[in-house]
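As the work plan foresaw, the team has encoded backbone shapes as discrete tokens. One protein thus recorded appears below exactly as we store it.

:::
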Amino acid sequence: MRWNSPRQTLPMSQTHKPSGNTPAQQQNIGLLRVAELGKEAGLPDGVLNVINGPGKLGDHIIPDKRIAKVSLTGSVRTGHIIADEAMKANLKHVTLELGGKNAAGFLPDMSVEEIVDGMFEAGFMHTGQICASAERFLVHSSQIDEVEAAIKARLEGIEAGDPMDENAQFGPVATEDQYKKVIEAFETAVKEGDRFVVGGETYDRAGFFVKPTVIRPKSLQSTSWREEVFGPVATLATYETEEELVREMNDTPYGLTASVWTHELSKALRLVPQVEAATVWVNMHTIVDPGVPFGGAKGSGIGREYGAAFIEDYTELKSVTIRY
């Protein structure tokens, strides 16, 4: 179970896979509280199980013949391992919601202020630690200078704080390992000749606090543009035509989410079918409705969570033909 949105994940976990929930190591407290609430509500023992522990638990869970379905929200690498083991375990059904290098494309009818607001919503909510977050921003070349100046001013004014403080503007990354990965991404960007518009360093305080960062990659083959960071780090590039915008948004092995930002609905309706992502938002990003299926296309996953498609993924279709 994902650590960054356990409450959102909870209803589907209770309804469709009640026999066992294995939370991320960073999310033990929340799920233990859920188990307490279940007991208080009168759930019989054994209906809802929370299993805490490291990833090695999967070595025992996946091969178990009593378990008919495995669902993972995690990294692409882990997803491949889980899928491989599930196939070996009698072709066990899997749902994989994996990572991506999601893009947000802003059309030139959007004002600079609107673009910057959209960038902040799409890329830096939850300190960028949402699989659906945008890590690639595309703006029209005619607006790039103003957008750079505006996003720099916006992000430089953000103060980090204790994530338990409701007034804090920006929290830390979740783990030391992820913190090191973000720092490594900064170092790689410097080595490859990328330019930092803003950020690229840590806050001067204890903890895993990283300043919100926007990078202008030296090329669209730069590591910063191609590989997921999963932190408060995004890249910014330009385009000239709508065709180029779509091509650059799709130039990734992943296809989890994307967003198109414009005041002209006709343009949005023209672009959305061309974008190779399982979820495409218009003038918003990282907004997930439990009634709408969510999952990944291309290398970002298999199956769907939420919506009617989710129910189908957690049940076995049976065909019955009768002569009487």
In short: The chain has eleven helices and 14 strands. The first helix runs from residue 6 to 16. The first strand starts at residue 69 and ends at 73.
